[in-house]
Amino acid sequence: MIKNIKYQIVRAGSDNAFITQILKTFFLRIQELGLNPASVVVLNEKNFKANYAPNSPTVALYFGSNTTDFLNLDLVDILINDASFILPIVEDLGNFTKLVPEVLNTINGSELKEEKDIEAIVNSMLEGLSLLRVSRRLFISYRRNESSGVAIQLYERLEKSGFDVFLDTHSVRPGEVFQDELWHRLADTDVVVLLNTKGFLDSEWTQQELAKASAMSIGIIQLVWPDHKAEDMSKLTVQIQLDKTDFISKTFDNNKCSLEFDILDDIVTSVEGLRARSLGSRQDNLVTEFVKTAKALGIPVDLQPEKFITLERSSGDELVVLPTVGVPHAFRYNQSEDLIKRIRTHKKTVPYLLYDHRNIRDNWLKHLAWLDSYLPLKSVKITEVEAWLKSI
Questions:
Q1: What's the pLDDT score for residue 4?
Q2: Alpha carbon distances (Å) from 240 to 112, 154, 271, 281, 336
Q3: CB 101 within 8 A of CB 13
Q4: β-strand 318-323 against 349-355: which pairing, if any?
Q5: pLDDT tens-digit readout, 181-204
Q6: Over the stretch 48-62, which tens digit does the pLDDT of each residue have?
Q7: 131: how many CB neighbours lie within 10 A of its CB?
Q8: For domain 7-128, which architecture applies?
């Protein structure tokens, strides 16, 4: 049998003016991922000892302060001993070691100065709970002869914010098949940042990038150039209408133009906000297609609150199907095995990763097939679900 998982958020350290907004945003993202907010427990110094479960997935927020009398060190010791994810949060990373207890000095912290910093913190929380994949992949879609300067500028700014950004001129290694690698990286991206210049759709390649992103339900941040209209795209599109004042020297009609610093910050915040919705939508597509196929075959399946699927094979073994977005990597395999350990209540649970192989390069598919031959966790392609269900 499968037991429900309780996700734990532990609030520790000093009071912080942003905590209410952080939790509000977190629960909004939880709902966008299709999870029941009741599956999350918020703990603090008052209810920690009575309700804390050491084996449940946990993220702790430790709010630092300019003091030598740090609070809740007893909670911190317990969390460290349990190898829980702890996120130290301070107002100024430049003074990080002075603002948090010494035991947290070696942990990478987050800066929280203003409301726009909240999205990045919430995404770190979701990643710490394995509800959002740790890899943070973006894809910049643009026309070289119209917006190369802004594309390179965004590449550098987003990489600085911790994203793995695909930009065709920077990300394809020598010897790679260019177009195959481009589609592979698009299939594995969280959000597309689309530079919608006047001639964007005049290119066959940019048209294909847009069509594939929409077909895969990838979220799109659409930066619309001045004197140009936004394109009608998927529902997972955030439009940012640029004004000439958003450009340095108010110049936007050549490929060397660049954006002002403030608008770059707005774009990063928008990407963080759209990311959970985009990944949640893609996961829902996998779940819906799997459940629909099983129903057509008359095979009963159960969709669990944590968005994985369970069913029984004729031998009585319980199968757990874990939908995974993008390219399954070794770390995702390890995360899935950890999840199985938390939800298993007997020894006959058989785990499978469900993924969409379309647009993934052949060498990666061969690698995944090789992993299947060695690991207890197997993979299933979404287009082969019907045959797989019939075989069990």
A1: 53
A2: 24, 14, 11, 21, 36
A3: no
A4: parallel
A5: 889 999 999 999 999 999 998 988
A6: 999 999 878 899 999
A7: 23
A8: 3-Layer(aba) Sandwich (3.40)
